[in-house]
Q: What sequence folds into this?
């Protein structure tokens, strides 16, 4: 814990899967890193009084409120952490910025390009007044991912020729899995594309330092009608038998799935590389399989989120007979973010990426620097998502990504 | 060895990489399988007298000739095995079929759809006269691949949702690698697309039992000009210093690369699955990395040619807590083709796929059955390649594959 | 967080590697599990005032003291958590039990059998008075390890024939690595044997439900003299240049390594299995490589701590052609301990084993049950360590393990 | 094929599993390697006329005989290849050497030390007369194994600290598997120990260049009585129902298993390394799992026979953050033995190790060099086996290996 007395009082909106992950990170970050400010878990916000009160108690927040406008209006909150579904990101984040709060907003930044554009503009305005903002592409902070970026930046891969990115899940393979909010366009914006495709877009752009310039895409909804849900938590859910059409539970009411189940696209990066992307929730047996391979003229790297402590690195400048993919266990003290944790070989988990994200966010805010990825970076991802959707609508025709002002600086 | 005295006298055209692989298979097949006919390595053909004489001696052929028309015209040849570059497949195979010879032709069947169409027609005509023909997509006969097809056919994967196929090599990453015949359109037809892309097209159609109906594609030639070659063997080659522009070796003459270095495309299969394909020679560190993953509603399979004795199978009908990808070592006596080889766990290699191919070819010819894949099957692959090229030329627009009469029966 | 108001006020002795890991667990456990009592991080104890004050602040303890006797004598402490080096375990734990405190003691339980015997006796006495005690073999609570035990208990492996256990590290391969406390017999009791060998002894006995009955052993100290240390943290350390013999830093003072660098032994388990064990700090490239394979008449399991979210299970009752090692990602909600964490495929890390340990400890104490492993269980491990040492001293002669009253109940 | 006309006329005794593997190698070796002599498959010998005639035809031998003394006495045989069970090795090899034939003898060299000693002496005598002999430890010629030896010899591993060798199979886990000759001491000499343990003893001594000096061992026979066999092939066999006690098939006659099912031992190598060995036929799920790991002060290597085209190499002299186990695909043209085969990434199989063995044997014989491993080398392995047996008999007491005159030169 830092010797500083400087505090950042955090107000978090949302308490589901992301809210739990962020809470774990806020709770831990100052315990393992020595930072110029301490995060205080001051206030949590949710619409249901009973549930938010319980969440505050369970997750360790000092107080709760049911009105996010109340949270934003309070003087004793420095940071607003937006963990709600995508349809409310813009409204909350814009209000928070306007109120002079630093904002950490979950990805995807918004459900539409228009919203994202407004948010990026507001962030730029706020930035001039010393207000910081950041979008929560937490996988940038997996040590192996940060290390990939460093290898590319140091030229260890040479000219990048290929990017191969897949994010595969299987939680809705069963046609009886209910119509949760993530399967509804008005809540989630899109399906696999925005939820997990956004992650691999950001991650590959971050690692390569190159932006996607154009795409050719196909999207698919395999199961077009699903039972209405009773309740859900994380990525699990139950069907509401009581909601059945005839009232006796034999045939639950159904509704249309309005988002993509899967999105695949070919892309070109600014530096000339050819890239393929696939995001799907129908890859049976793949639970959280974000996998990226990058081939350059001098070497290659491979990353798999289900083995996030490992990085495979192929160095083509080594003697021919000794070349091969080296499985680096990214747990050494001199690997990114790892000095704070355990001895080599003692692995970390998914949640640590959030702790690392909070670490960088706190440091940036406390020292007056701009954290990355910015809202402008996140807008650029949104523009890629939009180009994918447009290409899919136009028979996969090659579609240029509208330029944003984003960079991919760390 | 069979107790039969029936012989199949084989005449093989070509003696390079494929010629060596086929020779090893013809030499071995009757030693390990009990078949209704014995292959006799009767005659080998190549244009250079010295080289073909040496090849005959080294590879174990009884005689040699420098004229493939001579080979075809001889009465004591039953089977013509075409192992030349793609630009001569059609002429040789058509002549052989016309002469009543059974034909085994290496893939891709031809360099153009027109040639392939003529060959398929000729094969159909010849078939009526009891003449058999087959295209050499040898990977169908890797035991793990055959097993994948069986699992799909038995319904173990349920409805197929995704196919993910890559064939990655890296032998021309170096811009100084010379302009061998495989990099010239007039000899090879196409680059990575026809050479290795054809393999994953055939393999995935074979395994799923579904044909590709449409594609959206991008192709790329990263290195557009290369030194002229001095000599090559297999996939290795040397640059001809003597061919340098100024005659003193300081700047070798170069020529344009007229084929693709990489081809990526999204496809749909007849049964509704979404598929991605990538064939490239620029994937640093990937030597012969044919990898296929298929996700169905009830399970998934994964195959990697660099570990061709293994098959990963995910069975989603198992109890939840015990589900996972099972690494099956496909070396049991009751696995396809394996009863002839060694005890379990004693692995086989790349060349065995050719021995298995010869086994099935000999059996079909000797029993009067039609071997698969037929020329019609191979024409259908050619039509997919053609659709890929067309889509790439048309800004990746979705392009239907012209229907052929092919089936994907085993 | 539980709705209970019941508290367990914890006093922890020690604040180094284990202290940090335990702190992370105490801080997290009630945030993710709903338990019948809440742990309060009441008091931390260390000898150096400045360091323990800093640790209290950094790790989040309410107060600190420099005298462990003070900690034990306080009425407002319910649980004593012993995280010191092995030479002080007995004294502290005995005093704590005598004072009626529940005790959680790090492994190995003690440095000698005599001490361990006294502790087990004291624990038995205290237990009659409702005082609970537990030894910190945290790896039992890795979900994949717990699942291994369940599979064995359910008979899924049949009769166990082989156990193969290695715990490989490499942090002292460099002969210049200094003589830290873990390399001194009077502080650590033994070297690799007690530090990491104890883990695999406990883990395999726990999983198989069988005790080791006899051993044949060899131990080795490869580097017999090392520089004296300046400071250390976790498993890292620096050499004290100022401590050099001549005072000018050119030749640091050295001292004898009095523990084993490596210990290997063959063992028999009560149920007839043949087992091999290896613990070493000289396995270059192996950082924290605890690996266990168990072969039974009906199946096998394999576990690797560096991939602790995975379990490989071979089920020999499956059809022959489909048998293989199934890589189970132990991250489903119905896997042990996992309902509290993230969706499937979102992996956990090393530290979670401590959180799970605290979960079971709190539950046991709060409900008046006896947590496992008990001090008696840990004494039994100590008796195995002692038999290993004796066998090594007697030219590897087969040496029976002295029976304890331990069981291997969960 | 070499331009040479020099022939080596081979007479092979035995035609079962090893006979088939050797035949494949003799048939192939001159087709892929350019050697100073050509092997001719002149004569095969077996006791059963019908079976050996069939084998000659199937495997491609020019002639057959049922009397090995006849084979040895013929003038037109240059090489005697001994592929029989171990109980006849000595008699045949001694006679062949006496007759001036070069001898290739399968491992283990003999069933007893006395026999092996006589054979080594005879080989030394014969060697003075220009007669060559070699023992068939074929795994030395797996390219990855040869490469391991080279890495050690070049000092890339530094001082070797640990060797970890296991050879795990599971073909007799079923108690109803019959009592084949490999389970009878008078035929096989020993069980897992001599059959597969001998391989890992030779392999590790070959790779490290160090001999085992002493051992502490345990052996075990888990299933002590088995049904009598009807027939066997390779490692498979059937039970003879007709051999049942009462003649109606309900209870087949059984016999005692007189060899070990498993053997485990700890050893020390001449250079100071600590080594563990395990050979078993009871490791459910492990088919042919010869796995070796060697840890040195500068690096480590790992080899797995079920993935014999791969070698994992850890180079501890690389930068800390980039260290890891590099999976080298040992299929490059400049890897040992690989220039003769296919392009990189096109894997080879189990049988290729025999082809490589024949390559080296032919070259040595044709050029008047001594092939390795010699009979003296094989005697030394026998002495290790004998020490293992002795230690197991003496309660695992440390037992020195009797020195032989063996070296471990390649």
A:
């Amino acid at each position: 814990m830092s010797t500083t007395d400087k505090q950042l009082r955090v107000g978090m909106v949302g308490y589901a899967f992301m809210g739990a992950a962020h809470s774990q990170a806020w709770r831990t970050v100052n315990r393992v890193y020595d930072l110029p400010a301490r995060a205080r878990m001051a206030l949590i916000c949710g619409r249901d009084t009973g549930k938010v009160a319980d969440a505050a108690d369970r997750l360790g927040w000092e107080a709760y409120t049911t009105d996010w406008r109340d949270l934003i209006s309070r003087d004793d909150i420095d940071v607003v952490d937006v963990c709600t579904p995508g349809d409310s990101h813009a409204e909350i984040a814009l209000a928070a910025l306007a109120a002079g709060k630093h904002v950490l907003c979950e990805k995807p930044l918004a459900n539409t390009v228009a919203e994202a554009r407004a948010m990026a503009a507001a962030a730029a305005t706020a930035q001039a007044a010393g207000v910081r903002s950041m979008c929560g592409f937490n996988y940038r902070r997996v040590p192996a991912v940060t290390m990939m970026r460093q290898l590319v930046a140091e030229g260890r891969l040479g000219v990048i020729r290929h990017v191969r990115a897949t994010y595969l899940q299987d939680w809705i393979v069963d046609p009886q899995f209910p119509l949760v909010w993530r399967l509804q366009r008005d809540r989630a914006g899109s399906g696999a594309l925005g939820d997990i495709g956004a992650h691999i877009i950001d991650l590959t752009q971050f690692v390569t330092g190159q932006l996607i310039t154009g795409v050719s895409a196909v999207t698919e909804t395999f199961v077009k009608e699903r039972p209405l849900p009773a309740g859900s938590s994380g990525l699990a859910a139950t069907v509401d038998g009581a909601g059945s059409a005839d009232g006796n539970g034999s045939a639950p009411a159904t509704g249309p799935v309005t988002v993509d189940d899967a999105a695949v696209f070919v892309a070109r990066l600014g530096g000339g590389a050819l890239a393929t992307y696939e995001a799907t929730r129908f890859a049976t047996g793949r639970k959280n399989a974000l996998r990226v391979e990058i081939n350059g003229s001098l070497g290659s790297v491979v990353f798999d989120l289900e083995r996030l402590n490992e990085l495979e690195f192929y160095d083509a400048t080594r003697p021919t007979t000794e070349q091969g993919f080296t499985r680096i266990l990214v747990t050494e003290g001199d690997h990114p973010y790892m000095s704070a944790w355990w001895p080599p070989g003692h692995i970390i988990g998914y949640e640590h990426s959030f702790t690392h994200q909070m670490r960088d966010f706190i440091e940036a805010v406390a020292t007056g620097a701009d954290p990355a990825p910015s809202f402008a970076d996140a807008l650029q991802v949104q523009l890629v998502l939009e180009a994918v959707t447009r290409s899919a609508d136009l028979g996969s025709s090659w579609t240029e990504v509208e330029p944003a002002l984003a960079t991919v600086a760390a």
Q: What stands out?
A: The longest helix of chain B spans residues 375-393. The CA atoms of residues 26 and 39 of chain B lie 7 Å apart.
